[in-house]
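in:
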């Protein structure tokens, strides 16, 4: 249905407008119980034998939905039915965080939920900590070590340890990338999220595979996803590819990864 109704419509839209249209479509699907049950049946995400453990969490498969589609946690419970093992909501500021918490409480997620935080970072982190499984801190405008140090200290006040991942700019220089990775490794950051394909292999080599990598690299095909995993990514995310190609891209990617030799 997405291919017929939405895909031709969003084909020439810029990413943010296309994502807004896609989200309205998924809201419609989520509001119709029989349609949602159909999606859940077709896109079942737990039978592929490609599960993995990353920063202490168990993922049914390595494929997640990147931030930018569900900015306020409105549809995370429905979006995980598409085949994603985790959904990343946001980017969040303090106002969006409060709205997202209300939405998550109303419609809880069954699988792993991540929160991308881009503004009001310490406030948003503290508010949403109890409602998500891990946190992606957007540092695309430059690493702010003092802010991250504050988050690491705040985390110590909670009984449950939850991973913190830094999202780095796809335009980061090699020098700044190495500095960020050094900081992550000595401070106790759990992983990094990157947007450039070449950074996956570079990070894996520089950290000797010790730093988990989430690759959010504008993936448009299953083969690109497999290549990123082979280059050292621990997890991969779709967003724009899924918006423009439809939920079938999730199923095709999981089927491809199931058959691929990624060892």
């Amino acid at each position: 249905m997405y291919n017929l109704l939405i895909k031709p419509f969003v084909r020439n839209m810029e990413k943010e407008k296309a994502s807004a249209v896609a989200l309205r479509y998924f809201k419609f699907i989520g509001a119709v119980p029989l349609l949602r049950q159909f999606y859940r049946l077709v896109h079942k995400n737990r039978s592929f034998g490609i599960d993995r453990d990353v920063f202490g969490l168990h993922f049914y498969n390595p494929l997640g939905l990147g931030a930018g589609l569900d900015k306020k946690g409105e549809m995370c419970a429905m979006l995980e039915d598409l085949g994603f093992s985790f959904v990343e909501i946001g980017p969040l500021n303090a106002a969006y965080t409060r709205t997202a918490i209300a939405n998550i409480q109303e419609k809880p997620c069954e699988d792993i939920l991540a929160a991308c935080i881009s503004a009001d970072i310490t406030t948003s982190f503290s508010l949403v900590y109890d409602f998500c499984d891990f946190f992606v801190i957007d540092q695309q405008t430059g690493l702010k070590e003092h802010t991250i140090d504050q988050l690491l200290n705040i985390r110590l006040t909670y009984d449950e340890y939850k991973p913190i991942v830094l999202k780095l700019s796809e335009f980061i220089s090699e020098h700044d990338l190495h500095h960020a990775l050094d900081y992550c490794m000595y401070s106790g950051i759990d992983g990094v999220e990157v947007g450039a394909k070449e950074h996956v292999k570079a990070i894996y080599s520089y950290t000797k595979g010790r730093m988990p990598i989430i690759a959010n690299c504008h993936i448009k095909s299953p083969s690109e996803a497999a290549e990123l995993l082979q280059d050292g990514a621990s997890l991969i995310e779709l967003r724009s590819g899924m918006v423009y190609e439809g939920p079938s891209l999730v199923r095709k990617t999981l089927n491809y990864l199931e058959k691929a030799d990624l060892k």
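note: The domain at 2-258 is CATH 3.20.20.70 (TIM Barrel).
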